[in-house]
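protein under study:
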Amino acid sequence: MKKIILTIIIIITILAIIQKEKINNDYNNTITLINNIKLDNYSWSHLKSINEDIIAWLILDNTSIDYPVVKGDDNQEYLRHNYYKNYSLSGSIFLDYRNNSKFNDNISIIYGHNMNNNTMFSELSNYLDEYYFNTHLKGKLLTPSKSYNVDVLGVIKTSAYNKEVYNLNMNPALYIKNLKGSFYYYREMPLNNILILSTCTNINISERVVLITNISPNE
């Protein structure tokens, strides 16, 4: 019996080491892939040659969030596929399939994984700290036809099933009004269109950190 238990422990340990190695390799491959894509200096012809589903590039100033944005046929496609459509634990940063890729909807949602190596949308959790929130309020959203200023409005922690948060069928003013009691931090500013950035917390499978931003055309 002791030999059987020892054998099981050894097998479990080996499998855990193999899985950890796979995750580390995936992390490294993701970082390399993203850095290589960035070398093109946001050339849309080059990005489209990589993947026609790349529809934007999102940057939050002074963070590691500096990624292409894809849009799939549903919200499952890019959960575990990278920008080359290859399987990846890190997935991609992707726009909700119900949204217009020109970002002229009243409310748009972009999703990304909270990875342990500080990639993808991991830094969204930092916005739950008041100092970090107040010192990371700007960003940019680049598309083939237009660029937008991104201004952080507020941050909340919520359930993935919160219909008020993930409601696309609402005007921006009413959307913000309905969430006023949920914000960790919020700042007032004139509203244009709402861009929601959503990631998991890695604590509870259904818990999400949601950064609410305002996007306005960079004239």
